[in-house]
Each structure stands twice: as structure tokens, then as C-alpha cells.
Amino acid sequence: MSTKNNLQDALKNAFENHEVPLKEAQWERLEGVLLSNKPKRILFPFMFTFFLVCITAGLTYFLTLNYGMKSQESISESRNPSPSSPSLPDQNTNTSNSASNETTLLLNKSNLKNSKVAFSNPGLFTKVINSSIDKITKVINSVTLDSDKNETELEKDIPNTNEETEAPILFSEESIEPIQETIQEKEIDLVFNANDSANDKNDDNPLLMPYKPFSKFVLSLSAGYSNMNHKITEIENNQNLHKDSRMLFDQSNQNPNIFFINFGIDYNLFPGLNIGLNSGIQYLQINNPVNIKYKLNEIPLRDQDKIVGYIPLPDDQIKELNSNTTNTTTYINVPLRFNYTLPINIKNEVLLTGGANFSTIVSAKGKTIDVNDGEVKSLEKSRYNKLSTGFLGGVQYSHNLKNAWWLGTEAQWLSNKMNFVTGSGRINSKFQGYRVNLIIKYKL
After folding, report:
1. Angle at 422 between CA 421 and CA 425, to 5 degrees
2. Cβ contacts of residue 125 below 8 Å, gap of 6+?
3. Using an 8 Å Cβ cutoff, are 349 and 369 in contact?
4. Which of 278, 411, 410 is nearest to 336 (CA)?
5. Smallest Cα–Cα separation from 321: which of 279, 383, 367?
6. Four-CA torsion 298, 303, 307, 310, nearest 10 degrees
7. Cα 208 to the center of its chain, rounded Å
8. Nearest to 322, CA basis, from 288, 380, 286, 371
9. pLDDT by residue for the chain (444 residues), tens digit each?
């Protein structure tokens, strides 16, 4: 092991300071490696790209400018042939109004540039001519949209370009002002003509029409579905009535079928505030199906017209009171309510209504069980109060069908006081519920 280490140390010491010359090929390889490590010139690609963009932009501008001038001169020559060239037929010269107007505009510009003009104030003349060309451009563009109406006016305003003049045109401040005023007047006329034509088109579209004032009077006819019921609020002289009077009244007024039709009229009180008054007349019919089998097995024990107790009846004296019929009561209602209109647009509106409802009974048909007298009696309108009042409110939505006709739907809440006389007492109730009706209106 030591022998090997001694040999390595001897070789190391022998070749430690020994230098071997490199060959020429090795020097060239080393030089190539060193040159390849030099820093790259980053600025050169950017400079090359910048000059390339500048050259491209300059060529594009130069070619575009020359091509535009040549095309303008070719259009001018086609519109203004030389005197030696033969004239074209009329049918070839009849082009569309928009193409003729654009060609005339280009011709006016070329004539203004190529004319020999003498003027007293060069700066003022240049300014006016440039503004005039811009204004004429706007005028012709607007006329192109409605060329059929303004064709004759345009031919009068634009001079004949087929005649070339060599005479100098003299301009001064006094002569330039009338030109500016004439151009402004023509622009105003064209603007009003365009607005009138736009308004004529908007008249056909009802959504773009202005909202018309509210009608003074509105006639309406409505009918629909109603869900109403009686709710007992008080029993007068309860001590004089049989204890089953309340129960029999409830069974006789369950699940009523209601039919109504209403003719109404609205009067606009304050047009500026959208507040109106609604009234009319309503026909109301209430049908109550009744199927009651009642056994009278107790009789009241009275003391000075007051019931102090009940005595049971023997089986052979028990009465059975039956009523299997439909009780029909008919009323005439007169609503009086205010309404507030919320216009959505010209075709749709919402009304908020609220007020009083006055009701009177017209007829009553059917049968009723009078437990206090112990018998079945005919139903008469005298058992009901002649006049009753209540509250009526709702929300109505209407849509314009055609002209003055409107169709809508309305949801109402109604509550009226009702009285029913039985025996020596009276049952007070509230006839209340909601209605959903379809309404058709005609605005005068």
C-alpha cells in the first residue's frame, strides 16, 4: 500500500511544474470557445425593427396619398368630360341618388382646389372654404338618408359642375358672411325635415308615442269569481234566543255561490295628481245551498222573555226540522271609491282603489229553520237589514287593446255588515272575502 502511494507522489512531483506546448488546432479550438462567450448585442434587433416600421409606414402613406389623388382626378374626369369627348346617353348618367351626391361632393372639393381664386384676405378665405366643405359634406350625408324628398332642393343648392369657369372669384369678409348664413339655414331645414320624417315613423309605433293625458270619463263592465263568507260579530238579545240559533245560522250560510256583474264609471278629479272617483251599480246574487236535519229535543224555559234553562222532551215529542233547499238573496251595491293611477307606459297602467260600498237587499227566497218558534219558515227579505255599508278596496291592472278599449283584471277585498233577524233577537255578521274579476273599459 505504501509502495503505491510513494509512486503516485513521485509522479506528482515530477510533472508538477512541467509545461507542454499546445498544438495549433488546440489553440484554434480554444479561440472559438472564447469568442462564443462574448456578450450579444441586444440593441441591434430593436434598431432594425424600428427602421423597418418607419420605412413601411412611410411607403404606406406615400402610396395611399398618390392613389387617393389619382382616384379623385379620375372621378372628376368621368363626371366632367372634355368638350371634345362625346356626351354619354342619359340612361347611363342616371345613377342612384346616393352615388350622385357623393360624386358631386368630390367634384365640389376638386373645383374649389383647382379654381383660380383671387381674394383680399387669404387666411379668412381658407378658413371659410374649409368649414364650408365640411358643412356641405354633413348636409349631403344627411340628404342621402332621405334622397327622394330632398333631391330637388339639393340640385338647387349645389351648382352645376359640368360648366367650368376660368374667371377668378373674388371673396371678401362682406361676401363670405351671406354664404355662411345660407349654409346654416340649409342645415337647419334639413334637420327639421329629418326630425319630421322620424316623427312620422314613430307615430306607427305606440311604444314611442308620447303618453296621452288621462280620459275625463271611463266606462267599465266587470264580472268574475268571488269567495265570501259570513262571520258572526254579535248576537243581540242573546238571552232571548235558543242556544242553537248560532249553529243553525252558520250551517245555513256555508259555501255560498256568488254571481255579480258590475257597471262602473270613473271620473278624473285631478288629472295632474292621477286621482279619480269611481262609482256605478252592481248586481250581486248569493246562493247558499242548505241541507240541515235538526232534532228539537229541548225547549227553552223562559222567565219574563228570558231563557233561564232548557227542558228535555220525551222521545215521542221530539221534532225533526229539515231544510233541503237553496237560499237565494239578491243585492244592489253602489261603490264609491277613490282610485290612483300608476301609468307603466302608454299601453299599461295600474290602479289602486279604496272606498265605501253601500248595499241594499232586493229579494230573498228559500227556507230557514226558526228554532225559537220550533218550525221551518219561508225566507223573507224582511229578515235582513235594508241598507248595509262596508269597505271596498283593490288593485287593478289594465292593458290597452285598441284605440279607447282597455282590458284588465282586478283583485278586491270586500267587507259589509249584515244583519239577520231570528225570533226576538238579531244576528250581526260581516260578509267579507275577496273577488277576482275581469274588467273591460272604454275611455271617453
Report:
1. 80
2. 117, 119, 171, 176
3. no
4. 278
5. 367
6. -20
7. 11
8. 371
9. 455 567 777 767 766 666 667 677 777 777 776 665 555 555 666 676 777 777 777 777 766 666 555 555 555 555 555 444 444 444 444 444 444 444 444 445 444 444 444 344 445 445 545 565 566 566 556 545 555 544 444 444 544 444 444 444 444 445 445 555 555 555 555 444 545 554 554 444 544 444 444 678 999 999 999 999 989 999 999 888 999 999 999 999 988 999 999 999 999 988 788 999 999 999 999 999 999 999 999 888 888 778 889 989 898 889 899 999 999 999 999 999 999 999 999 999 999 999 999 999 999 999 999 998 889 999 999 999 999 999 999 999 999 999 999 999 999 999 999 999 988 899 999 999 999 999 999 998
Q: Residues 212, 215, 218, CA angle at the centre, nearest 5°?
A: 140
For the four alpha carbons of 116, 121, 126 and 128, in that order, the dihedral sign comes to negative
In this structure, whether the domain defined by 208-443 belongs to CATH 3.30.70.270 is answered with no
- The residue type of 69 is M
Position of cell 286621482? 275
The secondary structure of the chain, three-state, reads CHHHHHHHHHHHHHHCCCCCCCCHHHHHHHHHHHHHCCCCCCHHHHHHHHHHHHHHHHHHHHHHHHHHHHHHHHHHHHHCCCCCCCCCCHHHHCCCHHHHHHHHHHHHHHHHHHCCEEECCHHHHHHHHHHHHHHHHHHHHHHHHCHHHHHHHHHHHCCCCCCCCCCCEEECHHHHHHHHHHHHHHHHHHHHHHHHHHHHHHCCCHHHCCCCCCCCEEEEEEEEEEEEEEEEEEEECHHHCCCCHHHHHHHHCCCCEEEEEEEEEEEEEEHHHCEEEEEEEEEEEEEEEEEEEEEECEEEEEECCEEEEEEECCHHHCEEEEEEEEEEEEEEEEEEEEEEEEECCCCEEEEEEEEEEEEEEEEEECEEEECCCCEEEECCHHHECCEEEEEEEEEEEEEEEECCEEEEEEEEEEEEEEEEEECCEEEEEEEEEEEEEEEEEEEC
Which amino acid appears at position 279 of this protein?
A: S
Q: Which of 287, 231, 247, 256 has its CA nearest to residue 369?
A: 247
Query: What's at 234, amino acid-wise?
Result: E
Q: Which three cell numbers stand for residue 203?
A: 307615430
Distance of CA 21 to the CA centre of its chain: 97
Q: Would you kindly state where each structural domain of the chain is located, as residue ranges?
A: 97-204, 208-443
